[in-house]
Amino acid sequence: SDVGSQKDRVVTEEEWLEKWEMGNIGFHKEEGHPLLRKYLDVLLNGRSGQRIFFPLCGKAVEMKWLADMGHSVVGVEISEQAVKEFFSEHSLPYCEEPVPEISGAKMFQSTSGNISLYCCSIYDLSSSIVGKFDGVWDRGALVAVNPCDRQHYASLMISLVEKNSSYLLVTVSYDPNKHKGPPFYVPEPEIKSLFG
Ligand code: SAH
């Protein structure tokens, strides 16, 4: 578990925006993630009307799945292109409005009101702005965060969840000397120390 080769790597917001512009988005899965299907019961625990958070959401199709099941979905994504593609690819009408607490941020909300996507950096969010969540789907999120920001990210996520929440985390396991990431390799002991 030598992660030395990745620990100083930084992917800037501009680089992420450029990936979206170039269509360099191999992380996006049109079919949705089999692990969410598999562990849906763990996320929902038989409860209806949950508030589910998608950090670093991209245009993840799983947001549509959960909304269609009657849950309320909140995502955050720095690429406005990604957010707009999400709504247009699912033919969902939406409106957009500024977020008064965050300079430059916009919130895109489906007209039906059950999907709200914040277009800003996740580090600009707080529970006073977005409230707290019953569930989190973290796929391509912790593993996309720069290694130097992991502690900040994890503390923020902990501050955004309710006491009885469920947090599904997808990571990737591989030799970090063979690929520079993202996705980054996050060793299991580090996950335990980040989230407790
Ligand atoms: N979770 C999604 C996307 C994973 S790729 C999926 O499963 O498909 C990571 C995404 O995070 C990219 O779309 C990138 O634009 C976005 N991103 C990177 N840094 C961010 C930040 N600080 N705040 C919000 N979004 C960010």
UniProtKB/TrEMBL annotation:
Pfam families: TPMT (PF05724). Gene3D superfamilies: Vaccinia Virus protein VP39. GO terms for cellular component: cytoplasm. GO terms for molecular function: thiopurine S-methyltransferase activity. Keywords: Cytoplasm, Methyltransferase, S-adenosyl-L-methionine, Transferase. PROSITE patterns: SAM_MT_TPMT (PS51585). One of its GO terms (biological process) is methylation. It is found in: Cytoplasm. S-adenosyl-L-methionine binds at residues 16-27, 56, 77, 121-122, 139. It catalyses: S-adenosyl-L-methionine + a thiopurine = S-adenosyl-L-homocysteine + a thiopurine S-methylether. Its EC number is 2.1.1.67. PANTHER family: THIOPURINE S-METHYLTRANSFERASE (PTHR10259). Belongs to the class I-like SAM-binding methyltransferase superfamily. TPMT family. This is thiopurine S-methyltransferase. It comes from Passerina amoena (Lazuli bunting). The gene is Tpmt.
